């Protein structure tokens, strides 16, 4: 990604297309010129003022809007920033973007380039940038809360606090090195450092043992619908999604591809996947469908096994047995039971349901919500939200374990353990060199952020 701070970048920061208001953002040394040429005279800092937006060469009025001038360093990017609030018509936006490209030294921004400049100028750290990207992607309340906390520095504070303790411990060890001929002082400082490291090591173990709450909240709680063919899995998916997302048919073996529906259950993102039915089969295509079903079930946070009321004892396939602790048994088509005389008693460990009449559907959805909330809801302290952070916290924990298990006679090696641990934490927030991950992280943004 080109990132020359001498260049001034601009982009539409609001969504594409017709809207009430459109926001155009300009950042870099040329932003002041834009203010002067197109919306002058330059207004007071950080005050919204109404102005005609003019063509920089012809002076023609392009729109009448509101502008704000943010001189550096008090701006999102830390650079000079001009923001133009326009009428959100396509022609207005096109005219203004076209005019901006005529101002010398200006060019269109690349995806994430504003955020990258904010990072480069130390306005926000890397974990906050990732929180910001998640906030823009957030689809449910739970995701919004988590992302906002991260974007506001909750995770960064935790990791920076740990890192500060590590640096303190490292300082003690290094001080001990200086006094290496005075054994008493060396032993005392080493013991002090060890005490700090032991506490941190435990804190990291606890932090990592979070059941992946934050990551599941960020990516969605996955539910797999499984069961024999014709049990009503596709019908259930449609009923849950209240739209026709999966093909429902009376012919067994119709669902061969995996179909997903994203839901918002009480603020939590839940992804329900329909699967092909599990049964003895000859057909190659269907066997492939079942192989995929099994993959989906294995990757799910919750497996729903749907049986039919007329055959409640349909055996759960052995392949699903290892998932028993996260399998919820549902008995569908209970409407068929009330018709016959002497209807058999329901197995009491199964959730009764009739997709056809809707009986039990609300209960089932409530259960799903409760289970999802138990796994990912109620977040007090900041939690890990992505694999990148998890790997680095693990690396840090491992270095601390090496320190704690290592010999005190090799003080230099122990100091190196702590340096490596601090380095891993520093990579989460971008305090130490992270050039290798930057393009990946900033490339996630849309243009204009
Ligand atoms: N009587 C009754 N029929 C149902 C119910 N749910 C689904 N069906 C029917 O069962 C058949 C198979 O449904 P489908 O959703 O395709 O099953 P799948 O193979 O498990 O995906 C269809 O004819 C549905 O209309 C129910 O609660 N009661
Ligand atoms: Mg189906």
Task: Give the biggest sheet.
Answer: 6 strands, mixed
| Rg for CA atoms | 29 Å
How many distinct folded domains?
Answer: 3
Major beta sheet, strand line-up: 3-4-5-2-1-6
Distance between the termini: 14 Å
Average pLDDT confidence is 89
* Percent of residues in helices: 40-55%
Q: Spell out which ligands are present.
A: guanosine-5'-diphosphate, magnesium ion
What is the topology?
Layout: E1 8-12, E2 21-27, H1 31-39, E3 49-54, E4 61-70, E5 81-87, H2 90-100, E6 106-108, H3 113-120, H4 126-137, H5 141-151, H6 154-178, H7 183-208, H8 213-219, E7 221-226, H9 233-241, E8 259-265, E9 268-274, H10 284-298, E10 302-308, E11 327-332, H11 335-339, E12 351-352, H12 361-376, H13 387-405, H14 411-429, H15 435-442
Parallel strand pairs: 1-6, 7-9, 7-10, 10-11, 11-12
Antiparallel strand pairs: 1-2, 2-5, 3-4, 4-5, 8-9
Helix pairs in contact: 4-5, 6-7, 6-14, 7-13, 13-14
Bound molecules: guanosine-5'-diphosphate and magnesium ion.
Residues 233-234, 254-255, 274 line the site of magnesium ion.
Summarize the structure.
Helix content is 45%, strand content 16%. It is of the alpha/beta class. The two termini are 14 Å apart.
Q: Which terms would index this structure?
A:
449 residues, alpha/beta, Gyrase A, domain 2, Four Helix Bundle (Hemerythrin (Met), subunit A), Rossmann fold, 3 domains, six-stranded mixed beta sheet, 15 helices, binds guanosine-5'-diphosphate, binds magnesium ion
């Amino acid at each position: 990604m080109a990132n020359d701070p001498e260049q001034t970048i601009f982009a539409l920061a609001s969504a594409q297309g017709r809207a009430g208001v459109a926001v155009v953002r300009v950042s870099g040394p040329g932003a002041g010129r834009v203010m002067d040429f197109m919306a002058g005279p330059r207004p007071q800092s950080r005050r919204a003022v109404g102005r005609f937006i003019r063509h920089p060469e012809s002076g023609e009025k392009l729109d009448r809007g509101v502008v704000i001038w943010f001189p550096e360093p008090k701006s999102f990017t830390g650079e000079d920033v001009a923001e133009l609030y326009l009428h959100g018509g396509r022609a207005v936006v096109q005219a203004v973007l076209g005019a901006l490209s005529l101002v010398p030294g200006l060019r269109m921004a690349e995806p994430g380039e504003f955020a990258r400049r904010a990072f480069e100028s130390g306005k926000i750290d890397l974990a906050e940038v990732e929180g910001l990207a998640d906030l823009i992607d957030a689809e449910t309340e739970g995701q919004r809360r988590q992302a906002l906390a991260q974007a506001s520095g909750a995770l960064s504070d935790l990791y920076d606090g740990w890192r500060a303790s590590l640096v303190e411990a490292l300082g003690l060890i290094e001080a001990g090195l200086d006094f290496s001929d005075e054994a008493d002082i060396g032993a005392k400082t080493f013991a002090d450092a060890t005490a700090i490291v032991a506490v941190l090591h435990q804190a990291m173990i606890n932090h990592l043992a979070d059941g992946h709450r934050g990551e599941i909240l960020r990516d969605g709680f996955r539910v797999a619908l499984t069961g024999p063919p014709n049990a009503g899995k596709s019908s259930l998916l449609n009923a849950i999604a209240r739209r026709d997302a999966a093909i429902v048919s009376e012919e067994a073996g119709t669902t061969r591809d995996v179909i997903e529906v994203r839901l918002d259950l009480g603020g939590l993102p839940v992804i329900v996947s329909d699967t092909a039915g599990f049964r003895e089969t000859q057909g190659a295509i269907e066997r492939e469908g079942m192989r995929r079903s099994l993959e989906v079930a294995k990757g799910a946070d919750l497996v729903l096994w749907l049986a039919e009321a007329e055959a409640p004892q349909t055996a759960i396939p052995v392949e699903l047995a290892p998932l028993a602790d996260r399998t919820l048994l549902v008995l569908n088509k209970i409407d068929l039971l009330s018709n016959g005389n002497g209807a058999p008693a329901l197995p009491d460990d199964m959730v009764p349901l009739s997709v056809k009449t809707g009986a039990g559907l609300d209960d089932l959805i409530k259960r799903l919500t409760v289970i999802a909330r138990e796994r990912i809801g109620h977040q007090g302290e900041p939690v890990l939200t992505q694999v990148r952070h998890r790997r680095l916290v693990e690396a840090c924990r491992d270095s601390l374990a090496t320190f704690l298990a290592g010999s005190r006679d090799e003080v230099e090696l122990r100091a190196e353990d702590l340096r490596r641990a601090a380095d891993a934490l520093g990579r989460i927030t971008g305090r130490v060199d992270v050039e290798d991950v930057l393009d990946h992280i900033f490339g996630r943004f849309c243009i204009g952020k």
